[in-house]
Amino acid sequence: MTEVPDTKDFIVKDGYLSFILPFAYRKKQIRKAADVLKKDGFHFFTLEDPGGRINDLYEGSIEISQEELDQYFLPYVERKIFPPTVEEYGFHRFYKVIGEDFTLTADGERYPFRFMSLDVTLGPFGIAFLTSRVRLLEENLPLSSVLNFMQHFRATENKLKEEKGSIIHCGDGKDFSSIHEFLLDRLASAIRPFIIHDERLTGYFGSLPYFEDERMFVTSFLFAEPGTEFSDEQLFRIGRVDGLSPEGKPFISASNMNYIRDYLDKYLHDRWAPDLYTLATDFSYTNVTTKSSEEMQRPLAHFMGTHYYNFLLHYFYRIMLLRVSFEYSRLKWDKDEEYLKRLIELITIFSSWYYFKHVSVRQEGRELGLLFRQAFSLDDLFQEVRTTLDELYRTQENAAANSMNLLLFFLTVFTVISGIYGMNLVIDDWKNDTSWSEISSYGLFGWIALITALLGIGMSVYLFFTYLGRIVWRKLKRKLDDLDF
Predict the structure, then answer these.
(1) How far apart (Å, rounded) are the C-alpha atoms in residues 206 and 159?
(2) Domain span including residue 196
(3) What's the CA gap between 283 and 178, in Å, rounded?
(4) CA separation for the pair 44, 51 (Å, rounded)
(5) What is the DSSP string of 284-338?
(6) Is 182 helix (H, G, I), strand (E, B) or coil?
(7) CB 31 within 8 A of CB 86
(8) Most confident range, picked from 97-101, 206-210, 213-217, 439-443
(9) Residues in Cβ contact with 311 at an 8 Å cutoff, skipping those fewer than 6 apart
(10) What is the pTM for the complete model shown?
(11) Is residue 155 domain-resident?
């Protein structure tokens, strides 16, 4: 860590923060999970949303226009992210108003915050998202303190030195030293039984072994004092969520200004500068403005509504592309023929049903989508998946060709033998009841006829039961494997 030599904290007057935790769930249990969530007070979101409580999630005067959500996305995307029922494919969002105040203590500082609402989004392929929306209660905080709160809250398990020591204090006197336990034991206990905890990697904590989910992704909308001029170092720290060092001093994770400028060229969107800057990196998405919340009601509503779904789609793309690479690395080429077919099916369905380069009909939405694609390296990951798919197809074709060649070999042997004897492989002894003792008296022709007949009957029985067994095994594997879709 390098202390910031030439930059000062600006004052954050207000801030809306969201923390997104991805996890795996058993998609076959989605109906049961939906019922449990509804009993726990969660409401299923649709574009019609008869409950009408969607705007209560953000408090204040923020209003999410459902008509704008309807018009923002391309039609084939809209059907996936706003399914009318749980039974249809897509992203099934359940939301719940929390409205409780808590305090996080870390590095000798106290951060009172209000937990506004909670989302559980049950997505395709057994991937879900837990979204926590919070708002800092203390106004006029320095940037370093806000970033420090974000850094500690996003760490679901305190493993690193700079993350240890944080505690969440509840109003009833109960304390939590783990954000993961705070979320799943107190606020989202209804979904906990459906979370799949993966034990395949030694020492790994989390539900998705192909994703860095010990830390949550953080999105934020920060309001700075009017007239604030943002420096490159400050914008870099916001993108990297660089808050305070363990000694309580501001820190920045780079000291080379050329590196910082290159970083901002890649991740900073300054269409509305100098009043509003947007940063999208591999673990944070932040809007920072010098205007008041009253003046920024519409951008703030976009951040909570249309832009949230835009982000969620691209975040889902990243997780799925990493998942394919992980599943490919687990493939045992000499044993997993059925797993190979399922992996091909997974890639094909994901590419054709969900992976779209453009998701929005609006220019701002397209620009933001390109920013997310850049931040998540989606093009590189997708090219790797395309290469993986080609390898899988080639392997499957080779395996099918080898099986066909073996079958043709046996059929050719029987055909040749039958042709030599003019298709007359019948022994007179077989026309009536025969004794096995008569086999010893067979000549060369008799033995050839007997062996050919037994092999032919045996092969027919073998092929029949093999084909039947593969059907049963395929159905069983689909129930047991974790390629859940």
Answers:
(1) 13
(2) 2-331
(3) 20
(4) 9
(5) EEEEEESS-TTTTHHHHHHHHTHHHHHHHHHHHHHHHHHHHHHHHHH--TTT-HH
(6) helix
(7) yes
(8) 97-101
(9) 219, 280, 285, 368, 372
(10) 0.84
(11) yes
Q: What is the pLDDT of residues 456-474, one digit of tens each?
A: 777 777 777 777 777 777 6
Look up residue 442 and give its amino acid: Y
Judge whether 107 lies within some domain: yes
The encoded tokens of residue 266 equal 């890649």
Question: b/e string for 246-269 if b means 16 or more Cβ within 10 A?
Answer: eeeebbbeeeeeeebeebbeebbb
Q: List Cβ neighbours of 44 (8 Å cut-off, separation of 6 or more).
A: 34, 38, 86, 92, 93, 94
In single-letter form, the type of residue at position 199 comes to E
Strand partners, 304: none
In a domain, 300, yes or no: yes
The rounded mean pLDDT for the chain is 81
The candidate with the shortest Cα–Cα distance to 92, out of 80, 101, 100, 102, is 80
Count Cβ atoms below 10 Å from residue 51 Cβ, excluding itself: 12
CA 119 from chain centre, in angstroms, equals: 15
Counting Cβ atoms within 10 Å, is residue 203 exposed (0-12), middle (13-18) or buried (19+)? exposed
CB 223 within 8 A of CB 296: yes
Nearest alpha-carbon partner for 280 in 288, 289, 296, 269: 269
Q: Is residue 47 part of a domain?
A: yes
Residue 452 in tokens: 């050919």
- Per the model's pLDDT, the better-predicted residue between 46 and 314 turns out to be 314
Contact between 79 and 359 (Cβ < 8 Å): no
CA angle 269, 271, 276 (to 5 degrees): 80
Strands 284-289 and 276-280: antiparallel
Closest CA to 276 of 368, 175, 153, 376: 368
> Nearest Cα to 410, choosing from 359, 462, 447, 371?
462
Q: What is the number of residues in the chain?
A: 485
Which single residue is written with the structure tokens 């045996």? 458
Token pair listed for 484: 């859940």
| DSSP string across 106-135 | ETTEEEEEEEEEEEEEE-GGGEEEEEEEEE
Alpha helices in 331-443 (DSSP H): 337-353, 363-375, 378-420
| Residue appearing with tokens 């033998």 | 417
Q: Partners of 101 in the beta sheet? A: 114
